[in-house]
Design brief:
The longest helix is centred in the middle third of the chain and has 34 residues. 40% of the residues lie in helices and 20% in strands. It contains 18 helices and 17 strands. By secondary structure, the chain is an alpha/beta fold. The radius of gyration is 24 Å and the shape is globular.
Amino acid sequence: MKITVREIPPRAAWALEQAGVHPLLAQLYAARGVLAHDELDDALGRLLLPSALKGAQAAATLLADSIAAKRRICIVADYDCDGATACAVGVRGLRLLGAPDVAYLVPDRVVDGYGLTPPIAQRVKDSGADLLLTVDNGIASVEGVAKAQALGLQVLVTDHHLPGAVLPQAEVIVNPNQPGCDFPSKSIAGVGVMFYVLLALRAELRARNAFTAAQQPKLDALLPLVALGTVADVVKLDANNRRLVAQGLRRIRAGALPAGMAALFTAAGRRAASATTFDFGFALGPRINAAGRLADMTLGIECLLTDDAGRAAELAGMLDGINRERREIEGGMREQAMLIAESLFEEGDEPPPAICVFDPDFHEGVVGIVASRLKDKLHRPTFVFASSQAPGKEHELKGSGRSIPGFHLRDALDLVAKRHPGVLLRFGGHAMAAGCTINEEQFEVFEEALAQVAQEWLDAATLTRRLATDGPLNPEYRRIDLVDTLHHEVWGQGFAPPVFSEEIEVVSQRLVGEKHLALKLKHQGQPVDGMWFGHTEMLPPRVRLAFRLDADEWQGQRRVRFLVEGMEGP
């Protein structure tokens, strides 16, 4: 691993400090591209306007007409946390704005597969719906949209995934990544797109005199859900996404959150009053995602929709149990997948440019997590495949991929599809995460094709694992109050949490639970505890470490500790 240090533009850091920002935060913000203090203003009034989002006004008109005509609206959701929160935001928001009949349907990952398919369109029609509204999916559902319209349904697609060469012929498409859309925040999550459609709808209803500005329903109650889905989907936290997340966190910390989210905090052993983006990504998000991976995402959506605290606690407990099961399945799969991956190259050699693994016993609901773990370990674009459990599709493999910086995974799949027509039955995704379906007999063809693209696109520099850090930590900042200050800020994908790096003396070290390394360190001459989770190899007496600041509580006393992220070396 090569540890690098982010450059800090001195003028930007000075300007932020002069504007009253803490010196440490000023350096961290400047290193992440913040040039002026007003960029840190997270007020609702600073959000991008819905009018900039192509299709938002047309969607508002369509929805307002549907509400006026008392039409039945059915939301078709994706089965991940972004899809679940987008669905909950859609259902809650439309009801707030006067829609008399709003239902939802979420495909089963195993039986139905991803997105709006023709059979899903038929089920929506059979439910008595008039308008089909997709959230966090639909941009690739050309056949599903066509089927829905042939059945007499109106279709509104809201999505954020990258479109293919052909767009579905829906009545309206709202997607910042569709051709001709100038919305600056291309990284907005599916839940954010749905929230923006509701903002546009409220403005349209206001223009129709459904209510005045003073009387209009308050959509800010939905921001905790928007924040959760945005962080859990690991989209880039650009300025607009950071504002959405900050607004959601503010309400959560003040106790203004849905009963289901509050119950999930309790089930995860976390405190909503001190909520952080870490809680979204590693506590609440995985528990909601577990329902879509192993059971039925309806559980997750119902948890986010209920206003009954008792029901919320019951559902959160069920989600927590499913997540424990997910962890057990993942542990076994991860070990087997690593054995398969390591068999692809000799010990001491570099791994191949791309990794593809398949085992008949793998569970398709967990392949994405395992692909992520392998990618982290080997620093290669990685796909993990499992046999489809869908009736009649046992010959198909469903794969989930995770990538490294510099290798756009969806574009790579697109090139594989062009070079080898018919190999990819379906595919879609983003730069860093994508999914695909292939026939089992085509596994080796896909493996070789992906490796070929990786060989062409990746150079030695890209294949070298790099960890960007914020350089040495001034010892005066090694304080509990600053740990809390840092945790309070909005960090995530594209706006990385602070990681410091420097040479540190290792005083003593011991294994904890056979999986982790507990450390006694000296940081610039001062003793400090450290922990390296998931690492078992002993460290040399002096080593350059990358670490995060954390607080450890022991016998009522809170102390600063370093959480090690990596060390410099081969």
